[in-house]
Amino acid sequence: MELRKAVTDDVVVLDGGMSTALELAGHDLSDSLWSARLLLADPDAIRSAHLAYFQAGAQVAITSSYQATFEGFAARGLSRAETETLLRTSVSLARSAASSVDGERWVAASVGPYGAMLADGSEYRGRYGLSVSRLEEFHRPRIEVLASSDADLLAVETIPDVDEAEAVLRVVAGSGAPIWLSYSVRDGRTCAGQDLAEAFAVAAGVSEVVAVGVNCCRPEDVEEAVEVAHRVTGLPVVVYPNSGEQWNATARAWEGGAVPVAEPALRWVAAGARLVGGCCQVGPSGIARLTEVLASPKG
Q1: What pLDDT band is residue 254 in, cutting at 50, 70 and 90?
Q2: Strands, DSSP E only, in 66-141?
Q3: Are 73 and 82 in contact (CB under 8 A)?
Q4: Which of 49, 111, 180, 208 would staple 21 via disulfide (CB 3.0–4.6 Å)?
């Protein structure tokens, strides 16, 4: 079944943070390539992380390509052909893990923001000083590779501002490649400070967009965003927030207290969410609990 059809019939559970699962397994992600480094150094670790989430109940794996870019790998001396191979590998690792468990599973190829490549926390700020055309040039090669892979759709995620969303939509419009578009948000606005209704409106009418929503935000920022996204676009809504902790880019560490994403999940579903999971600091145990809550009679 296509994921587009699945979310019209029921709620679909996403995985949690790839980096979180890898860190729980003892891997050092202090490198600027973050989890994408293990596409080079230890691809089996990435497959194991996907498998842990599937075994916890996730139905969708988001690939390890969030921080995998042509520019980032070129800085490590890799050719374009080698980078293309790694992007495809990120999909095949998730697909391999999916084939190891029973039931229907889907693979979403991660397309992270420009700021992720910078590795300085700017995906939580946006406003890079680049034109929409320049952002389109950055995103096009990676999107074209991932769209031609074995992924079920593209997870365009943690997008901090409307300019970058418009750039991605220029690339995918007319391609037939299904995507979800997910913003990083704070206090009822995009991380760049833009109105959420205007942000979601750019996706309306683009047939490739199968869902819109938010990720890598605080749990308390989700419910309002779901309501706005559903009202503006009429599309299924995707949500996968962080645990509630805050990323300190200078210290490269998470700070503050955690909030289990499973607890408010039923409110998000009632507001229109149809793809629900976790992002940073939400590991397999958090997804297991989320799966349990969503499968309950009240879910």
Answers
A1: low
A2: 106-111
A3: yes
A4: 49
- Three-class SS of residue 117? helix
Terminal CA-CA length for the chain? 22
- Phi, psi angle pair for 136, to nearest 5°: -60, -40
Q: What is the pLDDT of residues 58-101, one digit of tens each?
A: 999 999 999 999 999 999 999 999 999 999 999 999 999 999 99
How many whole angstroms separate alpha carbon 37 and alpha carbon 46? 10
Neighbours of 134 (CB within 10 A): 14
Residues listed for the chain: 299
Distance between CA 240 and CA 262 in Å, rounded? Answer: 11
Residue 247 is predicted with a pLDDT of 66
Report pLDDT digits (tens) over 220-245. Answer: 999 999 999 999 999 999 999 998 77
Environment class of residue 130 by beta-carbon count within 10 Å: exposed (0-12), middle (13-18) or buried (19+)?
middle
Cβ-based neighbour number of residue 220 at 10 Å: 12
Which residues on neighbouring strands pair with residue 183, listed in sequence order? 159, 214
CA-to-CA separations, 186 to 180, 216, 220, 243, 267, in angstroms, rounded: 19, 10, 9, 14, 19
Q: Are 181 and 169 in contact (CB under 8 A)?
A: yes
Over residues 158-199, the pLDDT tens digits come to 999 999 999 999 999 999 999 999 999 999 999 999 999 999
Query: Which residue, among 228, 238, 280, 232, has the nearest Cα to 259 in the 3D structure?
Result: 280
Closest C-alpha among 275, 276, 282, 288 to residue 55: 288
| pTM: predicted TM-score of the whole model, two decimal places | 0.94
DSSP codes joined into one string, 202-265:
TTTT-TTEEEEEEESS-GGGHHHHHHHHHHHH-S-EEEE---S-EEETTTTEEES----TTTTH
